[in-house]
Design brief:
Layout: H1 2-41, H2 47-53, H3 58-78, H4 81-84, H5 87-98, H6 102-111, H7 115-125, H8 131-185, H9 190-239, H10 245-248, H11 265-269
Helix pairs in contact: 3-8, 3-9, 5-6, 6-7, 7-8, 8-9
Length: about 270
Amino acid sequence: MKTTLRSLLTPTLALALLTALAGAQEAAPAAAAAAAAPAATHTKKTLMDLFHEGGWVMYPIAIASVAMIWFIVQGFINTSRKRLLPIEHVTQLRELFKAGNYVGAYAFAKSNASPICDVVRAGVALAPDGKNMTEESIVSEITRVQGDLMGSASYLSVIGVCTPMIGLTGTVTGMMSAFETLSSSGVGDPSKLSGAIGEVLVATASGLFIAIPAFIAYYLLRNRISNGIHDVQEVVGGLFRSFPYEEVSGRKIGDEEIYAAKPDWNAAASQPQA
């Protein structure tokens, strides 16, 4: 009995297994075709498609990206050693200081535009007024140069702060549009809802995409400016070391006009009283 039952079940199970395998083989191409159909109809979005999808906030973000590139390139050029300390300017100033030709050093520094020449010109012009006035003039000019460089770099920080806020504004407007679509048409038209959600995501991502490199460039430029100003101070300190303040005291080296004259007490006394 068991042998007969086994002999009947064995062909039946084999037939069922073959049928299942055949059905699976036929279903596999159909499933693959069904999966490939949406992929075939899906088109990859271009950069302009994403730009238009992001909404109106993409225009100020685009302007901010162009400004960011400009300030980064300009900042790295202006903080290079060739701009701060041109080797030909440093060499010529050292030769003029070694020769004691301070009038020539002033004329050279005034006729050549570079931070090192501006600082030396300010120091040499007030050298006849003593060491304290000279050092104050040098520090004041170095502070001005540093302020000019940091002023340009600080715009990168402004861009880094503002672009995420602009993207957040696009996020808020996109969410308002999404809820408006949801309230008017419900979930029956998912294309409109997905368009509003796409505006939210693209605007947020674009703001962060601009803010992150802007902050990185800002801190890199700030370090470059600090190192460059230190190099300028070192070169100027070497030039004015052992400067003969006593020998140039009372003389006129530069052509800056001196406004403070000796007091005229007679003119003060002759002024009519109100």
